[in-house]
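We examine the record.

___
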Amino acid sequence: MKKKQAASTKSRYANLKKPSRAPPAWLFGPVWTVLYILIFISFGSVFLKSWNHALTFMVLFPFILNLLFNLIFSPIEFKLKNNMLAAMDIVLIRGTIIWAMIVIYPYAHRITYMQIPYLIWVSIATVLQLTVTYMNKKK
């Protein structure tokens, strides 16, 4: 069943109209693998600092929201097959990355810097998702 689902997801992405400058599909897996390692280390550090009361909940909050928005992106895009909701979600992902970088900077510059590759990739993905959403809108 999983193979059929993966093939369906791959097929759906392949059949969407995309801009000519869209990254190749094979690039997403390796890039997200590296990003998830950075996210795990940096977000883990923030959660640990918050658990130890070195950071307030308001510093932790954008990290929590970012994880939630990030986790629901794939189900929205590939299970619900809803480009518009996925576009709104990725805008929220990008916004919470920026918010998280701003609020953590006074406490841990290193964590802010670790978010730069994540922000760059999500910015590219945001433009791609918005473009794909526009190009595939139903008339």
